[in-house]
User: What shape does this take?
Amino acid sequence: MTEATGSIEAPSMGRRRFISLMTGGSVAAVAMGAAYPFVSYFIPASTGSGSGGVVAADAQGKPVSVSNLLATRLSTDRVLAQGLKGDPTYVVINESAIADYGINAICTHLGCVVPWVAAENKFKCPCHGSQYASNGKVVRGPAPASLALARASVDGDTITFSPWNDDDFRDA
Assistant: This one.
């Protein structure tokens, strides 16, 4: 308040502009912070190396050892590992060698993890009774399709899973 006129001085435009910019910036920062999780949900995560493959890992996240598998498992075994997109994927052992394909363990009916039943030589879904042959082909519903395949390749003592881009050999 000035003494001579008894009126209140208005704040300068510089201070008003500063307060407006600070308020607008704060609102924008909060809005962007709230929008980030929403937007990032729609952007797919990248996994694996540039070749499109991912190293098969055990339950502890360590790479699966080919020599250990072949030394400790039967020649017709299916061993669960972490595969593409983190999905459980079976490493297929055929005649004391790693097959060139892996079998995704997610049931095509409702998404349950399908265990390998070695005594019956097939996969059996515990949720609704779907059954799959040893190569993942559906043999009994309600599953509408066979288990998904992944390309498996051996590099030294590790197994790498990559997307299956070939025709499904089980349909022949």
